[in-house]
Amino acid sequence: MNNDVFGDLIAEAALCAFSKLTCKSGKPSIRSNGVQEWTVMASVVAIMDNETIEPLTIATGVKVMPNRVRAFSQGFIVHDMHAEILALRLFNFFLLHECAKESSIWVEQGGSNAKYRLKPSVKLALFVTEPPCGDCSMEYLASSLDSNEPWTEEAELNDQFHRGRNNFDRVGVVRTKPGRPDSLISYSKSCSDKLCLKQLTGICNTTTALIFDPIYLDYLVVNGVKTKNFERCFINRLSGIEPIVHHLKLLHYTNDGYEYHKAQDKEPSPVSLLYIVPSQFVQVLNNGIKNGAAAAKNKTPKAGTESIICNQSFITAFNKLISTPSTIASPTYLQLKRSQVNRERLKNIGKTTLQNWKPTDDDDFSII
């Protein structure tokens, strides 16, 4: 199948599923002052051997929490609410619930060491309505803004830390969110960098990686990204370690029916939508917890306010799935993460290769 046609079919399926969703609280709205909101939408889309295309998860979002929130998060707050990252986190939640079924269209046992695996007949694409922030989208961003001048704050101009649009002329480097110079520092890596790293580790998270063989994205479906920029970001930056890289393939699409694109006269939506398409499950996030939930400033959120895709919720869902929760021997979340030796090894290789990967502060909590 022609790649452009293939990209169009994936985009059409994701946009159609999003348009049919009637939940208005999670979609951009017109504010009381008449200003229209915008947001980015992303979808993890399954492609079957018989060419059936089915969106599995859909998410929207453009926000990121400041790094200082990690001091009191205790695993209850979702820090990175960019659409791509939310769609992938929601896919991991989807995986756990597929494992709990007697039979699943998407997953099966039979992986290495009796693990689960994504069925071999399934490939995955990530559809996004805007180029991923960071290195992949620098040229696109420069051409789409009224002003493409770089940030010039003295504190930001150094070779160790590229934040948003500082050192705008530098490409092939790790960048952090958010993309505004007046935002509090997050240290959360750009979507370009996170997706680049997932070509090594796969898209499973700390919990699903315990019971699944690695699962990789096969395609990135997006408009506005030139092939040379895609190859620099996702291929050339990892050129020295090809044997352990599952490279993404770029697909473009032409039929864009998305109505919430960014524009100079629009404001970013403060909320994020989570939508699991097969089960019709919907949740809306605001500031990293469920929209409408009360949260005390600089305090750990109360039980019941957390999202289904926060780290605490993943541990809870995982413990419900396995027969003996005590099989998680690690006493804390970070120790559990670091106990996955091969996954940590691949992450470290990727971070070293990409260079200047400044870590976020820890967000740890007890799990036993």
On the 0-100 scale, what is the average pLDDT? 90
Total beta-strand segments: 16
Sheet having the most strands: 8 strands, mixed
- Category by helix and strand content: alpha/beta
GO molecular function, one term: RNA binding
Domain A to I editase: 57-256
Protein name: A to I editase domain-containing protein
Secondary-structure blueprint:
Elements: H1 3-20, E1 37-38, E2 41-48, E3 53-60, E4 62-64, H2 70-73, E5 80-82, H3 83-99, E6 107-109, E7 116-118, E8 122-128, H4 138-144, E9 162-163, E10 175-176, H5 191-201, E11 219-221, H6 227-234, E12 249-251, E13 267-268, E14 271-276, E15 281-286, E16 289-290, H7 311-321, H8 333-338, H9 341-354
Parallel strand pairs: 1-13, 8-11, 9-10, 11-12
Antiparallel strand pairs: 2-3, 2-8, 3-14, 4-5, 6-7, 14-15, 15-16
Helix pairs in contact: 3-7, 5-9
